[in-house]
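Worked example

This section walks through a single chain of length 100. The input is the sequence exactly as stored; nothing has been trimmed or padded.
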Amino acid sequence: MERYSFMVAENYETREKIMNETIRTYWRDWAAIVYLFICIVDFFIAPLMWNIGMTMMDKEVQLNTSRWAPLTLGGGAMFHLSFGAILGATSFNRHKENKE
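Given that input, the structure is written out below as tokens.
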């Protein structure tokens, strides 16, 4: 119950302090979940929907349309490199925070 104690805090300052501490503690986990969701959509769900949609089109549309290209791989996969750097560097340094 301590995890959600900000919901029952009596005053605004206490609630804000607890929320800030929760965000500071769990932001890496949330970022990893967001990254996982984006990858699942871009590499599995969107291509599946694209192919299902293409099977319903006319033969001429099917021939003139390219296959699904993952959106996050554009620009030299800078999206994945950025998330890898953020999550990798912060998780590598996380043990230092636990000692404090």
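What to look for: The mean pLDDT is 83.
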